[in-house]
Specification:
With about 90 residues, this protein is mostly helical. It has 2 helices and 2 strands.
């Protein structure tokens, strides 16, 4: 009977250890996911702000018409900025 109790105690300890490790792993993975999501969101915001600033500095307003000089348009296109200018 004593041997059966020891085996049960060992099994319980192993199961508790596995449960604690699994919960710790889930928590750490969740934390890493949240941190990486925040980082990507900040990087995307920075890229969009930079693209908007570059576009704003490249647009010329002459007589109520919007235009982008050809050289500036090529630079913006090379950087991946895509814009449609609509004049009314």
């Amino acid at each position: 009977m004593k041997v059966s109790l020891v085996r049960t105690l060992r099994a319980r300890l192993v199961l508790w250890t596995m449960l604690v490790n699994a919960l710790l792993l889930v928590f750490l993975c969740g934390l890493a996911w949240v941190v990486l999501r925040q980082l990507q969101s900040r990087q995307l915001d920075d890229i969009l702000q930079l693209s908007a600033a570059q576009l704003s500095s490249a647009v010329d307003v002459t007589g109520g018409q919007l235009s982008i000089p050809a050289g500036d348009a090529e630079i913006l296109t090379a950087r991946g900025v895509f814009v449609w200018l609509l004049n009314s």
